[in-house]
Design a protein that fits this description.
It contains five helices and four strands; from the N terminus they run H-E-E-H-E-E-H-H-H. The chain has about 110 residues and is mainly alpha-helical. The protein has one domain.
Length: about 110
């Protein structure tokens, strides 16, 4: 899935509305201002995480002493997801209290 999303994020926007009336769209997510952090596609970051995880699993399969690296990498990924979910929930609350849709998740990334 990460590979497919990375591919889509590098290509021109296709049309893929979801739902009968197209109220939600893949384009809204893949090409939004929130889809990049410091100019790097979030999908590419996800793909990179999975490639490293696969490499660690292969090495740990051969040498069980490296299993700690797989566990540590998994914990890092879980912490990253938890931090992202917390940040998004804070912004949803902020949007609701301000009554605006113009709140940015990573404003520092968009200033570059």
């Amino acid at each position: 899935m990460s590979g497919y999303l990375t591919y889509l994020s590098m290509m021109p926007p296709p049309s893929c509305p979801v739902g009968e009336f197209g109220a939600f769209s893949c384009n809204e997510v893949i090409y939004s201002q929130y889809a990049r952090v410091y100019g790097i596609s979030v999908a590419l970051l996800g793909l990179g995480w999975f490639v490293v995880a696969l490499g660690l699993i292969v090495f740990a399969w051969r040498d069980q002493r490296l299993m700690w690296a797989v566990v540590a990498w998994s914990m890092l990924g879980a912490a990253g997801i938890a931090g992202f979910v917390r940040r998004v929930s804070q912004l949803i609350h902020l949007k609701a209290s301000l009554g605006t849709s113009q709140v940015m998740i990573f404003p520092q990334a968009l200033q570059r």
